[in-house]
Amino acid sequence: MLLVNCPYCGARPEIEFRCGGEAHIARPVQPSALDDEAWAEHLYFRTNPKGTHAERWLHVHGCGRWFNALRDTVSDAFTASYTMGEQRPDAGKEGE
Amino acid sequence: MRRFSLPTLVAGALNAHRSWPRQWRDPEPKAYYDTVIVGGGAHGLGTAYYLAKEYGLTNVAVLEKGWIGGGNSGRNTTIIRSNYLYDESASLYEHALKLWERLSDELNYNIMYSARGVLMLAHTVHDVQSLKRHVYANRLNGIDNEWLTPAEARAFCPPLDISAGARYPVMGAALQRRGGTARHDAVVWGYARSADAMGVDIIQNCEVLGFTRGSGGAVSGLETTRGTIRTRRVGVVAAGHTSVVMARAGLRMPLESFPLQALVSEPVKPVFPCVVMSNAVHAYISQSDKGELVIGAGTDQYVSYSQQGGLHITTHTLEAICELFPQFRRMKTMRSWAGIVDVTPDRSPIIGKTPVPGLYVNCGWGTGGFKATPGSAQVFAHTLATGEPHPVNAPFTLDRFRTGRLIDEAAAAAVAH
Amino acid sequence: MAPTTVAQPYRFAKGGRIDRTRPVHFLFNGRTIAGFAGDSVASALLANGVHLVGRSFKYHRPRGILSHGVDEPNALLDVSRGPGRRDPNNRATMVEATDGLVTRSQNHWPSLKRDIWAVNDLLAPIIVAGFYYKTFKWPRTFWHRLYEPAIRAAAGLGLAPTEDDPDRYVHRHAHCDVLVIGSGPAGLAAALAASGSGKRVIVADEQAELGGTLLHDASSTIDGESAEAWLAGALAMLRAQRNVTLLPRTTAFGYYNHNHIAMVERLVDHPAPGSTALPRERLWQVRAKQVVLATGAHERPLAFADNDRPGIMMAESIRVFLNRYAVAPGRRIVFATSGASAYQAAADAKAAGLDVTMVDTRPEAGCGVQSARLRALGIEVLTGHTVLGSVGRMKVRGLIVAPRDATDRIGSRRTIACDAVGLSGGWTPAVHLFSQSRGKPVYRDDIDAFVPGTSVQAERSAGAAKGTYDLAAALAEGWRAGAEAAGLDGTRSFAVSPPTRTGFTPARKLPTDVDASRVRAFIDFQNDVAAKDVELAVREGFESVEHVKRYTTTGMATDQGKTSNMAALGLVSDALGRPVPQVGTTTFRPPYTPVSFGAIVGQARDALFDPIRTTPLHDWAVAQGAVFEPVGLWRRARFFPKRGEDMHAAVARECRAVRSAVGIFDASTLGKIEVVGPDAAEFMNRIYTNAWAKLEPGRCRYGLMLKEDGFIFDDGVVARLARDRFHVTTTTGGAARVLAHMEDYLQTEWSNLQVYLTSVTEQWSVIAVQGPRARAVIAPLVSGMDLSQEAFPHMAVRIGKICGVPTRLFRVAFTGELGYEVNVSADHARAVWEAVYESGRTFGITPYGTEAMHVLRAERGFIVVGQDTDGTVTPEDAGLAAMIAKTKPDFVGKRSLMRPDMVAADRKQLVGLATQVPQLVLDEGAQIVADPRAPIPMKMLGHVTSSYWSTACGHSIALALVSGGCARLGQTLYATTPTGFAAVRVVEPVFFDRHGERVNGDFAHA
Fold first, then answer.
1. Which chain C residue lies closest to A23 (C-alpha atoms)?
2. Mean pLDDT throughout C952-979?
3. Which helix (H) or strand (E) holds C193?
4. Are B310 and A19 within 8 A, CB to CB?
5. What is the CATH number of domain C19-131?
6. What number is the average pLDDT over the span C752-781?
7. Quick one: pLDDT at residue C142?
């Protein structure tokens, strides 16, 4: 069971949280302007990286807040948690 | 290929089994193959087998980054069934089941397909509706599946607790008698041995690092840890690592990879005659020929390539098992493990072309790929050999995520209202 | 069982850690075995001269006790502690001997001594590794019908429990600064060092007593004290500290993510029965800041022909039985070793007065001073020898040895008569937990073993677990590990005398003078895997160690290869001519040792398996004799049978009451969410398909919600209480996920909206009063509200009082009748319900359950999300196209509705079905076809989603999703039945009160 660091509450066991999948996939401002392919990309296609993953977590049995975290999908080690709206801490470095 | 049989086995005993040949070679990669399969699991090796046997394509390599069968092929709970709801899925899994029934003969390898029956339990009115929907749909598709009362279910599976006082009483069950189990490793080895005998090169410890592209962006070769291999046709069958391999071809996939855990108990004498699944309490269980209770758990909730999941996931599963079979509380878990399963948004596989010419993919089997193995391999071989899908895999395109024509078995099972 | 004085012929009169003042008696295969408190079942059996304790898995060979600990592969017993308290496969070396135990050997028929399955041993030349892959293929169906049942009956070990387990299991979660796993010398030193910091320290050890190897170390002194005295002092110091928790009988079995360690503590398996108030086992889940792994090492046997006879055991185990349990495993003991550690065991055996011979596979020059020292004690030491086999059947009677030279030329044989043999093929550090922590073990050539490499999590290893076998070094290493884990610096050295005997040369498979390919030199005793099986696997191309494991089953038994893994690796390495590290190592997985399902499950059984949610009105329904159904976690009243009624009759009566007079229904399980804030209406606009801006306060509207993929997610009536306040209802099962869905969009996509969401499901109980007389029933009870049609029309909401308590009163009609849903605080729900019921008596008010509710809503064609929709249904499919606000530029799910497949003509659409035979009630889930004579596979058009007998209509009714259904009105189709097909006519999905006039109830005839 992971130890997840909620930016509002601190480290808590994983069972207090719900993982919301890949982060930083903003809902298009005007979905109707997207063609089917772009909309499918938004809905379904994911990076699914072997390495650092930016992902969404909800502290559902705690403060009820959503936040983002960086986790290595090989070691499962977290390297950062940050609030919604904050820039990804390793911005510019992902994909290395 | 030296045939396996009781006489050859007895003959082997006479010389202390010194003359058994290798079951497959350990070749150096050639510079060029007509077709390269990336991924040496049962689906990939089976694909190579059918390419050679049914399409006469033998200049084929299977590249495996570790040892063959080391991924999900060797980490699943070996359940076989075809009682799927939708025509598309039913057709795919039934295609596989028919191949399972004669696979030992065909491969001259005892893969131990055991039609001991798969019993799916209903615990709520909603489960009853859903399972009957399956039973009726299967009947019209020519797939065996029958509805049992609780007493009939218990008669088929004596350890089952059908008391009305249970937290989730059993209200009935659907039984597919032809469903059952097989020996997962033997499937891998059997396909490898036969494919190898027809000339397929099985190359282990060979990881794909990149793709080279020719005119029109078509695949022209692969960069691997064992050198460059030229080819014009690549089939990626890399299960949990599909996104990683496809990213090397510049493609994003509608996939996420999750750890899926399973566990076995200590071996005991025969006590559990069939396979039991319960969607309501999230459990499935059977007993292996060695005597272990084989129990499948759910996935962890986060993307991971670690082959390690949390204790709370297996805990939840054991709670469900002990609720259905209270007498197993004093049984002991002996070994647990995890595979990395690649899950699509509709939890159905993708088998077919990609936007890159010459690059084909067979992925997204999620938690249920083992049962499809021969069918998946056969239709993928067809697709690779002819460039066009087999009718059975035609609906399982990548394009369905654009059109919305999803094949969502899990959504069809819906949820309690 | 009457405790009789049974002689223990192999028990020493003095010494050991057993308590001779507390005799215990238990049964083994019906024979009374006497022992003492402090004995394991294994030591007590040996004290009584019992070696034969089981049959092996495959060849059914007689087997004895091999080891003294968790690595035991052979001595697996069925143990019963009373009714329902029987379980198989218990290691006799780990079960504490207690009064009243009933133990039995396993895997034989008819008896342990005469086992007809031993015929397998004669077939051994044929049934080699992987034999079943090569045969049993013909004829096709015979595998499942004949061969497999035979193989299964022969396989397996013990018998599974058959009764429900009366024992309790508990869970405990703990945090600590330093968790020390293992309480041998390194672990104790680590605990001593760490405890000085004042930080929270937990020490766990799988044995009944803390101390590890110090419990049987009769020769060493530490800092001038005997090992025993030093141990007592160390434990006393630790016990005196409040920050230290000592957990004997506690096995750390799983090292999970982020230093999450799972341990199981055995609580009542050890003392006498009777203390049954205690739980049997306690599962600890520890989140440790730092972990010290001091898990020790397991000894390896030597591989030679017939190395598995009862009486042949590990050299160190003989030392343990001698010193800790005061038991002589034999009187004439031969040790065979490839290293020096066995010399201490030999010296101890000699000191105990036993006849001892030492056979060392190393040449004299490789044995250093040890051989001379042993000879000085009067022990014959044969260096440069190999072991060719053993003699005896149910018990070893001799060991066959011969000299070997540097080129492995074998000299003449000699059989050394003996009644016990001690083997030592080196040591394997227990790196299991390190490996589980994702660390990669690294190979050390000098000790031919893997030791922990770089740490991945916050842990460090010490002592034998790290390959440090020298006692002084292990103590110092442990101390340092403990200090560092506690954030202290500090090293300490320990003076140990005499120095530990170390020195070792690996011996994979002892050279023999016969055809090596026919010799069965076992490496995995439990699964009956011999060295030649591993060689066969390699010959057949199974080169990865994982392939070898799977092909031969080595390391796959209940001991998970603790004694055999290194042997298998070494044999593969030899066969391939590749160094061990290139062959690879096994990645260890939890559990370290088998753990009961019960311990893992803990209290989560029966009602605690999943909490059962009940409403404040539940007890009333129970008192009325309601029959309940589970819906998610809820229990809902399904119907209220009167005497003699079945469900059909009860539901028909309940429906009649609602249609003709009035019914009362507990709708409290509906999800309720309060959406509040200046931007509430805008938020609702984005989340729901329909428009909310124009809904006036005081009015209700049916709302439909999609997921982003365009499929129906949930529905429910929404009341606007004020411009900035909505009272949202959801389906019973959807409450939590709808709130999560709303929160997700609010927090992550539209965080600029000023909206607050609150779950009020538990706060508001809902009493539905439905039927033409509904108004008359509640009218006398309400105050502050005008119930007249004009003042309080259908789909309105009012805030006022009922029975003097605040209510949000909805006028809604899921049954199609005039109806109210009385929302009152949960505390008042029962009182209000009873008042309404009392008020309704004159009108014949009838409580009804979910079944009648379903019939009533289906008669009106109202869908239930999750039953009539299934996660693949769009609003248009469900006949709810009108719910989509055309004026809104966007809402969740809107874009997906434009995808090509979402507008296809053949989509399944909601229709009604009228059966040709009016009495026939179709099965929900029945499939629909156009032509029942079409060949299989038959084209299916859809399925029945809801189907009931309708008393109001006088015939059955059904809702169905049918491909292109709206265009099929009037067509005759066919639905499956258990025996065939039934003709049905496609009709509009409304069966009763087509124009919805009944919602005005008695207003209409007022």
1. C748
2. 97
3. helix C185-195
4. no
5. 3.10.20.440
6. 97
7. 84
Task: Determine the residue among B129, B264, B302 to mutate to test chain C binding: the one whose Cβ has the most chain C Cβ atoms within 10 Å.
Answer: B129
ipTM: 0.97
Per-residue pLDDT for C137 more than 90?
no
Asked whether the CA dihedral C20, C25, C26, C30 is positive or negative, the reply is positive
What would the pLDDT profile of C418-460 be if each residue is shown by its tens digit? 999 999 999 999 999 999 999 999 999 999 999 999 999 999 9
Chains within contact range of chain A (3+ C-beta pairs < 8 Å): B, C
Domains assigned to chain A: 19-26+43-90 (3.30.2270.10)
Q: What percent of chain C has a predicted confidence (pLDDT) above 90?
A: 90
Mutation to test the C interface, candidates B112, B332, B335, most C Cβ within 10 Å: B332
Q: Which two tokens stand for residue A44?
A: 């379904």
Q: How far B244 CA lies from chain A's nearest CA (Å)? A: 7
Residue whose C-alpha is closest to residue C837's, from C767, C785, C788, C772: C767
Q: For B401-417, what is the mean pLDDT?
A: 77
Q: Which CATH architecture has domain C169-297+429-497?
A: 3-Layer(bba) Sandwich (3.50)
Question: What fold, for C515-586?
Answer: Arc Repressor Mutant, subunit A (1.10.10)
Using CB atoms within 10 Å of the CB of residue B158, give its burial: 0 to 12 exposed, 13 to 18 middle, 19+ buried.
Answer: exposed
List the end-to-end C-alpha distance of chain B, in Å, as a whole number: 57
Count Cβ–Cβ pairs < 8 Å, chain B vs chain C: 350
* Contacts by residues C263-268 (CB-CB < 8 Å, ≥ 24 positions apart): C263/C204, C264/C595, C264/C596, C264/C599, C265/C204, C268/C167
Domain-wise residue ranges, chain C: 19-131, 169-297+429-497, 515-586, 608-669+762-864, 671-760, 904-987
pLDDT at C607 over 90: no
Interface of C with A (CB under 8 A): 256-260, 285, 287, 438, 456, 708-709, 740, 743-744, 747-749, 751, 889-890, 894-896, 898-900
The 10 Å CB-count burial string (b at 16+, else e) for C735-757 is: bebbbbbbbebbbbeeeebebeb
Rounded to whole angstroms, the Cα distance separating C912 from B281 reads: 33
Residues of B engaging A, defined by a Cβ cutoff of 8 Å: 241, 243-244, 247, 252-257, 301-306, 308, 310-312, 342, 344-345, 401-403
The burial of C84, by beta-carbon neighbours within 10 Å (0-12 exposed, 13-18 middle, 19 or more buried), is given as middle
Whether B228 shows a pLDDT value over 80: the answer reads: yes
> pTM of whole model > 0.90?
yes
- Mutation for C interface: A16, A29, A58, A81, most C CBs within 10 A: A58
From chain B residues 340-359, the ones with a CB under 8 A of any chain C CB are: 345
pLDDT score for C7? 82
Are B306 and A21 a contacting pair at CB < 8 A? no
* Structure confidence by residue, pLDDT tens digits, A4-43: 999 999 999 999 999 999 999 999 999 999 999 999 999 9
Architecture of domain C608-669+762-864: 2-Layer Sandwich (3.30)
The number of angstroms, rounded, from the C-alpha of C902 to the middle of its chain's C-alpha atoms is 41
Give yes or no for a contact between C229 and C217, defined as CB atoms under 8 angstroms apart: no
CB-based contact A75 C438, cutoff 8 Å: yes
B-chain residues near A49 (CB < 8 A): 243-244, 247
Domains of chain B, each with CATH number or no CATH: 6-77+184-254+346-413 (3.50.50.60), 118-177+256-342 (3.30.9.10)
- pLDDT tens-digit readout, B46-66: 999 999 999 999 999 999 999
Domain C671-760: assigned CATH number = 3.30.70.1400
Q: How confident is the model at residue C5 (pLDDT cuts 50, 70, 90)?
A: low
Residue B360 to chain A, least CA–CA distance (Å):
17
Question: Can the peptide bond before residue B273 be classed as cis, meaning omega within 30 degrees of 0?
Answer: no
pLDDT band at C715 (very low <50, low <70, confident <90, very high): very high
Mode of pairing for the β-strands spanning B172-176 and B180-181: unpaired
